[in-house]
Amino acid sequence: MTERTGDSPDIERLLVSFAPRVYGLLLRMVGRPDVAEDLMQETLLRAFRSMGTYRPEGKFRAWIFRIAVNLARDWIRRRPRQRVFALGDDGDETSPPLTPAADSPPDADVLRCERARWVEQALARLPNADREVLLMRYYGDLTFKTIAQATGEPLGTVLARAHRALKKLGDMFPGESHEPMP
């Protein structure tokens, strides 16, 4: 989005349209729905207050995700002694390997939910910088170029992190096809 408008309702509508993706990204970064909700609201508030600093030559999506990622990083940094849990993680440091149970029911919905839980747990095991890139790419639906803009990192660094993270995820799921995440 490269247009700017001085009309407050238009700005509010634009910001609110990004809320679900921003929330999804934040939830996967911090692992807590209550914190993700607070960070999403703070992201939207900061973006609204800072609309005067937005440069139209940049991508609006990268700008708002940069605000969200920075807020999540700050929240994570302030809690160095707390482990960030993936959704559905039981906190057991000696959890079994991420492989499907042989006796899983053939119900597609159950399998899909179970796979999502495995992916969430695997993502939680990645280094923060690698996880951020994957979350922005596959959950935030951002291009690698936009991720580079949002993180302030060179494009090559973002691509290397994505490659490294996908390789690590592939190693966590032996026997699975290594197609890109949905």
Structure description:
The chain has 182 residues and is mainly alpha-helical. It has one domain (8-172). Helices cover 62% and strands 0% of the residues. It has 7 helices and no strands. The chain has helices at 8-30, 33-49, 60-77, 108-124, 128-139, 144-151, 155-172. The protein is globular, with a radius of gyration of 18 Å. Mean pLDDT is 76; it is low at 1-6 and 82-104.
Write a brief caption for the model.
It contains seven helices and no strands. With 182 residues, the chain is mainly α.
What is the topological layout?
Blueprint: H1 8-30, H2 33-49, H3 60-77, H4 108-124, H5 128-139, H6 144-151, H7 155-172
Helix pairs in contact: 1-2, 1-3, 1-5, 2-3, 3-6, 5-7, 6-7
Supply the key terms.
182 residues, disordered N terminus, 62% helix, single chain, mainly alpha
Helix tally equals: 7
Note the gap between the termini. Answer: 24 Å
Low confidence ranges: 1-6, 82-104
Helix content: 55-70%
Shape: globular
Report the portion of residues in β strands.
under 5%
Give the tally of β-strands.
Answer: 0
* Rounded radius of gyration (Å): 18 Å
Q: Please tell me the overall pLDDT.
A: 76
The run of helices and strands is HHHHHHH
**Structural domain count:** 1
Q: Tell me about the biggest sheet?
A: none
**Helix-and-strand structural type:** mainly alpha
